Amino acid sequence: MKCTQASKYLPLYAGGDLPDASKRQLEEHLAACASCRRGHDEYVEALSDLKRLRRRPDLGPILEGLSDVVLSRYRQNPHAPAAKIYRPPFSGFVRVAAAAALFLVLVGGAFFLGQSSTSSSGGGRPMDSTVTDVGRFVGSGNLYLDERYREMLEEWERKNGRGENPDYDRLRPQELPSVQPASHRRGF
Amino acid sequence: MNESPSSANEGELRDDNEIIRLCQQGDQRAFTLLVDKYQDRVFWVAYNMLGNAEEAKDVVQDAFVRVFRALDRFDFNMNFYTWFYRIVSNLAIDQLRKLKRKRPVSIEELGDQTDHLHESRKPSAKLEEDELKEGVRAILDELPPHYKIVLVLRDLEGLSCKEIAAVTDTSHPTVRWRLHTARKLFKEKWIRQENRSERAKALLVGLEQNQREL
Question: Are B101 and B10 members of one domain?
Fold first, then answer.
């Protein structure tokens, strides 16, 4: 263990809050490192000073008759705020509903990913140059490629007109037509 | 609330849920039992958070009134004491944020009600101890509330990190992280204070020597 790691463990170790495994490692380090031992001693002294606040006088007279005071305050002002009843954030119906929603999202996500992978790797799929097809084609999940495919499609259509049905699967990056960077061409 | 004939005494009732059930049935003595059981513990949490006995007393009263109002809806799946500690901690933190450094009123100033406890000590020893405690309290007061509450609950009240997580509505790792940071901050400020007092002592010794030489 290095001194940087040991210094992170010291505050919890000094108060007896370090798990056993880390405690053993730290104790080995402390046995060999005088500087960290000094740091540890400082923590122990500081905490023992803090614990002086634990020594308490008897409160008897100070809080005497507290229940009477509370009851009279309760009767005087029946509309005073009540304590909030804290409940675990996911309990009962909410827990079941959250689990069902999570399941649906996971199944939907898996289905969508399966579809998009078949559509982007369907060998030699003929390209129908319609907006719908572009939408399907760009769902690869890779934003850079999506943008490039859109640009390629526009470039192709500008040169050859619609209906030529280029086979996009054969296109490789080096064959891509030269196009302006995406940042200059918004909104197609 | 009425006093029912079946109301309990302390010997019979130790379980909080049992006391709460009696409170829900309108047993006033059960409520008194609940107050007696918890008043000291929560007072010290509030006092260590606020450093002011009067403010702490108000917070405790307010907490009990709120609890009293909510007991009908109490969820028996919860621990009463973690719920109650949470109410007191939140009220104390709110109060701490509202307070603009009022002069602290120590326990001893509340009508010198605790003087008999110190009678056997020498005045100088008591003075030294009080000064030391004041110094420690001043350091504690400098800590941000969410670190301070963790330090108070762990090192002064002896709650476990798991219990503190339930009281502060945070996770166990968050409590451990806050405890780590709080102790580190406390130690740094404590060292600064120690250095200051050592410098002051050295200055006093120097002055005394000068006077002797003159």
Answer: yes
